[in-house]
Amino acid sequence: MLRKITAFLESIGVPVRHAQITEQTFVPGITLDRGTIVIDESKLLYPGDLLHEAGHLAVLRPGERVDLQGTAGDSGAFEMAAIGWSWAAAQHLGLDPAIVFHDAGYKGESQALLDNFAAGRFLGVPMLEWLGLTTAATYPAMTSWLRDELGVRRLREFWSRREDVDWVATNTLLCGLGLGLRETYDFLLQQKPSFADFEQWIVRQNGGTIDAERIARLNLALSDHGIAGEPANPAAEPALSPEDLAFWDENGYVVRHEAISPEACAATVRAICGFTGADLEHPDTWYGGPQGHSIWIPLFHDPAVTANRHSARIHRAFAQLWDREDLWATVDQAGFNPPERAGWRFPGPHLHWDVSLARPIPFGVQGILYLTDTAANQGAFSCVPGFHKKIDQWLGSLPDGVDPRQQDFSKEAIPITGRAGDLVIWHHALPHGSSPNSATVPRFAQYIFMRPSRWEYRTEWL
Ligand SMILES: O=C(O)CCC(=O)C(=O)O
Ligand SMILES: [Fe+2]
Known about the structure:
Strand content: 5-15%
CATH topology of the largest domain: Jelly Rolls
Shape: elongated
Helix content: 25-40%
Distance between the termini: 59 Å
Number of helices: 16
Structural class: alpha+beta
Bound molecules: 2-oxoglutaric acid, fe (ii) ion
Number of strands: 15
Low-confidence stretches: none
Number of domains: 3
CATH architecture of the largest domain: Sandwich
Mean pLDDT: 92
């Protein structure tokens, strides 16, 4: 039985070591040393105690487990969680629960505990559920035997990709964790990390910490009923005027001037130059950076780009368009579109849609933040104004077999000029793209938009 228990503990990632224990221990023959369970078989009286101690370890975060020395202690809620955990472990191993809840322990309450569990009154389950280890509906089956570092709902399913996490929830999950889609899939596919390594990578991408309040909001957003996002800032002034909103309705795009400060623009330009190796004084350095022949710059976590995603004005502008405050900022790339020259032609994106053309097209927005003044011929963002109003009807009028994505909108598209710090927001039903830069300086940009936790999405891609 001892072998069975220790093999189980090792299989779930609780380290076990056999050694002579000379000091006095709280539980006979068992002590904890930096998160490892140390067993002295000559002194061990109740092998079931191993499951209780392991239960205490299991309900702590990995970083907290290694702090444990001697005994796990027995603070109320965690004691209940450890009890619920050890009962589930006994069931899982096919052991008589009386081996765990033995007469010598539990201050004489072991029989009462056994009676409760036998009658289906499962103790400690709300706590285990809160820790993400099981659900009330499936207990004593456990979703996971060890508590995660971050405790984010659905993260384990997303990591294992054995269970389906739908596209909308995936986006909310990654936005909430401050992660870009591409970098996350690249990391998972290329590194094939353990779950613990994945969590550590997430924390590193966030500069070493993710605040607990953000995790709590994200967990609510990912629950069946939650819709939490970034909190509203009631003090923030409206970002778009009634005229702006009327313009938006009519044209399907709008420019929010001074969405970020000149200092924030300058810091972001510096970050992009740092990444690409571009020196504004020397045009030869504008080409051949690590981004290759592309205007997309995979710069996701520089402090300057992160700060822009938390701009209150940007949040307000999107909140007005969505008519709700609980939004998450996408973690998207930056942009660097240098002037065309021999050997370097504008690589696109030409006019396109990023949304499925299955009708009706749901509401959705996208955005680009200009970091320097952007003239019409400087690779400006371009779009077909007002197309959001007619797209459904236009799609319906196309003869069978005609691909809407192959139609030429170049005559109807207009370049949207702007100053440094301007945010251009457009309805995703507008054909849009960047454009060739025939000016003498590059266009610097950051792609940013915000969405609620849930949004309407067509699974069929047309
Ligand atoms: O870079 C641009 O101006 C357009 C980018 C674009 O197509 C997009 O962000 O979806
Ligand atoms: Fe696009």
